[in-house]
UniProtKB/TrEMBL annotation:
Membrane-spanning parts: none
Family recorded in the similarity comment: Belongs to the cytochrome b5 family. MAPR subfamily.
Species annotation: Saccharomycopsis crataegensis
Name listed for the protein in its UniProt record: Cytochrome b5 heme-binding domain-containing protein
Signal peptide: none
GO cellular component entries: endoplasmic reticulum; membrane
Amino acid sequence: MTSSQFDPKQPVQLAPPKDDKIPRLELLQYDGVKSDLIYVGIKGTVFDVTNNIKAYGPGTSYHIFTGKDSSRGLAKSSLKPEDNSFENSYVIDDLTPSELKVLEDWFTFFSKRYNIVGKVVD
């Protein structure tokens, strides 16, 4: 896949990326339930997906990815709880090369659509 395959249908104006440190436990609040903001982390980078509540809001399929670094579930294309639990969702050291490629594709996809609001820290 080329990066142009990930370009949004409509141009998106993105703000300059922020480098704020967001503790893993604090990220839990940005799930659209505890806060109006909805964040998804990928490879330690936090994206603000609030403007896509239809996909990431409470009650949607992709809500499972919110409020944490969801690298594992995205890489595995998995909505399974065990791949998306707070304890496991960011663990990627055992992924296959093809899963890591999928994760990289997701990172590119998000990077072209959503503002970066910070980095996950422990």
